[in-house]
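Trying the structure run again after the queue cleared.
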Amino acid sequence: MSFVHLHLHTEYSLLDGMNKIGPLVTRLKEMGQTACAITDHGNMYGVLDFYMKMKDAGLKPIIGSEVYMAPSGRLNKDKEAGFPNHLILLAKDFKGYQNLSHIVSIGYLEGFYYKPRVDYEILEKYHEGIIALSACLKGEVAETAAKGDEEKALTIAKRYQNIFGKENYFIELQNHNIEEERRALPILRSIAKRIGAKTVATCDSHYLGKDDYAAHEVLLCVQTLQKMTDKDRMSFNGPYYHVMTEEEMRERLPEDEEAIQNTQLVADMCNVEMPLGTYHLPRYIEEGQTTPWDAEVNRQLLEKMTMDGIQRLYPPEQLEEATARARMELETIEKCGFVDYFLIVQDFTRFARRKGIAVGPGRGSAAGAIVAYATGITEVEPLRYNLLFERFLNAARISMPDIDMDFEDARRGEVIQYVRERYGESSVAQVATFGRMEAKQAVRDVGRALGMLPKDTDLISKLIPFGTGLEDALKAVDQLKKMYDDGTKLSGTTVKELFDTAMKLEGVNRNFSTHAAGVVIADTELTNYLPLQRDKDGNVITQWDHNLVEAFGLLKMDFLGLSYLGVIQNTVKMVKDQLGVTVDISHIDTEEPAVYKLISSGDTVGVFQMESGGMKGVAAGVQPTSIEDLTAIISLYRPGTIKAGGIQKYIDRKNGKEKVNYYHPSIEG
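Done. Tokens:
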């Protein structure tokens, strides 16, 4: 195998690329490919996902991006700025990957104007370890060559070659059955010879197979809010943008065998190894500390904070047990390398409380850590409730700990800003999330593109059971299956065409937004590890979702904003202002019978985690009388799996002792 795809768009070229990474890798294996590049439009959203799946399949991942070049500079953002050109950049090694991350991030953070744009200045600064390809007809060289101006195209090519080095700049040759390409090809070959550059054969792949062409045209309509019947709609010129085989590439470019062979040469030059399996945790330095970071100093600091907290929080008769438990936890925390992690969490938690920002008492397995309780991270006492530290952190199975923090939503931003200022603006960012085209959405999007009336797409969409994929919906809903098989037409389109097209687009990434809670903190400038951009509100966010951030070994924390905490905070203030009574919400009576009577009655609108219809039914069935009862029903109840009221409480009396148990027929034990 000598041909390698060096110009390929995945579903992370949002609403433009259709290549889902999993099926793409499978197809590459079937074709006998040994390597492939990812070059999405202006971003690096999918590079780590692509890297890991390619590695798992025994294939070489080539990390790249098709960046946008601003003709008049990235900082020029007026109407005369001009349309940006394309340029393919591929990382040769991890240094090149880091430089590519810097380039792509700058495109968003500094150069964004309709598109994330970079310029020659940025390329000159971050060219090390990067291979550049001249790109498609949107590239400066090919676009100029297509106009017949060989000398100008030659000058542009020389400039790129001077930036990246003669051995790192390649002229792309493409044939997608476009007249402009046919005009450009002989000029591009001539330019390559004149400047001593090698050529590479590429296909601007946007979808997997030839039969995906029609669905991809619909996807473009979804992107542009156009219909397939629109004469001026965005369109590719035919089924020539799939992941071609080597034989197909030779058919497209029969005169360019050397260019096909050179793709393997480029693949051999690209050898990025991601530092997976290690953690990149920030280092904690106490405010006011003048000495450099020291692991032993921090170990002693966490131990002192913990022991001071235990002395303050526990009565004399529990000190021995609490101290022994704390020392065991501290030993595990140190062994796992998470001392700084705890210090950082207690730091911003302490800030929030100092500023009067409401902080939740703790959630999840972190409440099982007495170190978290003693240092003020949580307010749940582990010994009283027999909570296990090992559920949170286990030396036998080291993984990144996960402490989710709740803050009143109106002031959550203050905590995030403190973290930015404390650990460095360039080392902190919020985390991205991607919205996929789920079944119902796919039907509506495709139906609109095909010109169907909203009432007809709504009819089909409502027949699809919630959470069910399109293929399963056809099997489960007789009415849908009948309409599909009988050739039923709605708004002039058959249900079969609607479904077949929607099934091809189902699951494709549709949009990009900011995760509701995730914040990442690194030990250095984040762009050394991953690319960044801004969200619609101007916040700096990662280009990866939380799963990829964690897979890379970065510290991701959830800063959840809860309106309920604000309600509680405001209520406490009102009680103080109007009645002169100070309520300490951290020390309330958890055994007050009137509270449990209220919960058992189902009158819980506005009560966190207890106000849904299902939870009201469960509470009515259990009739809780203790905090343990509430813990059990909140933990056991899952909408759609356990019927409201189905959880029952019974008391097991043995040897003169009572043990409370909870039962539901669907839960063994």
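Residues 126 and 357 are 42 Å apart (CA to CA). Worth checking whether this holds up in the mutant runs.
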